[in-house]
Amino acid sequence: MARRRRRPKLPQDPVQATIESVGHDGKGVCHINDLTVFIDGALKGETITFIYTNKRKNVAEGKIHEVLIPSPLRVEPQCPHFTICGGCSLQHLAEDQQILLKQGVLLENLKRLGKAEPETVLEPLTGPHWGYRTKARLGVRFVVKKDKMLVGFREKHSNFLAELETCKVLHPDVGLHLRDLADLLRSLSIYNQIPQIEVAYGDEQGAFIVRHLEPFTDNDKQQLMTYAEKMNLHLYLQPKGPDSITRLYPEQDVSENEFSPLSYALPEHDIINEFNPTDFTQVNMEINRKMIDLALELLEPQPEDKVLDLFCGLGNFTLPLARKVAHVTGVEGSSDLVIRAKENALKNGIENADFYAADLFEDFSGMKWAQQKYDCILLDPARSGAKEIAEYLPKFGAHTVVYVSCNPSTLARDTEIMVHQNGYKLVKAGVMDMFPHTAHVESIALFKRK
User: Fold this and answer.
1) In the predicted model, is pLDDT for residue 296 greater than 60?
2) Residue 275: exposed, middle, or buried by beta-carbon count in 10 A (0-12, 13-18, 19+)?
3) Is 0.70 topped by the overall pTM?
4) Highest mean pLDDT: which of 1-15, 40-54, 325-339?
5) Local structure of 59: helix, strand or coil
6) What is the pLDDT of residues 67-78, one digit of tens each?
7) Residues designated as active site
8) Which of 153, 172, 256, 265 is 20 to 30 A removed from 61 (C-alpha atoms)?
9) Residue 223: phi, psi to the nearest 5?
């Protein structure tokens, strides 16, 4: 039998260090002998003492024990749970500096991995710092030793749920009422069989999807419906997988769809997009509206243009583009979202847009839409990026490409392909504060054919 390798014993005494930089995940970076150490909550230039939490070969992690000489950019976190909850990582850094840190992460990735620098760095796109998050998956757990129901996010570097009373980044209708929600769940007969609640908000309405491992009693359901009515919620139950979701409140007729759609408006474009609570939407509606306007400004669409919108979702960019061009084609991997995009086009009176379902990570070259030419292309992929699209770009013939990214490393990887293999130049790039107080970097880049 192979022997289990023992973890190296970590030093228990605090170690003093000066923070040299801040990494892409918001952790302070320093070097101790031959170790590169990443320290939660430390800022560049600070002198601190820290305690090791993990160590392997030439890399270690630590947590602050004491800040001896603080950075002038350090602020007092507004959330009382910041040191415990893993939902936020940057509340100790001044808000106007958080976005500049993210801008630095983007530019460093573009230069190092993409081997390219934008001719112009865009002014960061900013919005609300609190109460902005309209989508979340909240963990639920009853802790026997504390005799307490917990609702919220995990602790930092742990699978345990943090003990939260409020969450200031969540939509206030849920973030300011976590304790009320926890008390409601504790009063139910199967309080220890509820692992998760999925939360989604539109402009006027919210929705909860309650995951449960055992059936609710009639009394449980009545309590849930009373809460939903009080909090202006559509409430759904999910006993098994996603296909098992059923609406509890408002009660439905047999003829009705399972989901009561939520919606968000794009007033500048005379568009209202409807979506189901399980659909992907951006979590920050104000930044989303600004992002759409910026993307269209960068694309400079003309009335005669044909535009291709890849990873189009439910038509977030496609429908505003359709207001300005001759024709727009949206392509999306999720067939459900394609259905939603077509429905939204119809409801908004848009007839110059068509939509296709396609796996954009596989060979799509034989598809009708992929064999056409386009004037402009918009990309908004998931974290894994759009490598296959970047390699295929020359066949589309587009003179302008706008790439919206939620991962600066995959954007940089795809930039290297577009710039050094496919004849585009990186004209502009910048960051958007989609997730304030977190290390998440949302960015946008403009490419022009040379």
Assistant:
1) yes
2) buried
3) yes
4) 325-339
5) strand
6) 999 999 999 999
7) 406
8) 153
9) -65, -40
pLDDT in tens, 184-241: 999 999 999 999 999 999 999 999 999 999 999 999 999 999 999 999 999 999 999 9
Domain with CATH 3.40.50.150 in the chain: 99-128+280-449
Q: Per residue in 410-429, pLDDT tens?
A: 999 999 999 999 999 999 99
Task: Extract the tokens encoding 64.
Answer: 């602050």
Check: CB of residue 181 under 8 Å from CB of residue 139: no
Listed residue (180, 184, 178) closest to 161, CA to CA: 178
What's the pLDDT score for residue 335? 96
CATH code of 99-128+280-449, in short, is 3.40.50.150
Cβ(93)–Cβ(99) under 8 Å? no
Structure tokens at 21: 């930089």
**Cβ density class 320-340: b for 16+ within 10 Å, e for less:** bbbbbbebbbbbbbbeebbeb
Q: Are 112 and 409 in contact (CB under 8 A)?
A: no
d(CA 371, CA 368): 6
- Tell me which architecture the domain covering 15-74 has in CATH: Beta Barrel (2.40)
> What is the location of CATH 2.40.50.1070 in the chain?
135-201+206-249
* Paired tokens of 436: 């304030």
What residues contact residue 257 under an 8 Å CB cut-off, 6+ apart? none
* 161 token code pair: 């749920």
Q: Does 3.30.565.10 match the CATH number of domain 135-201+206-249? A: no
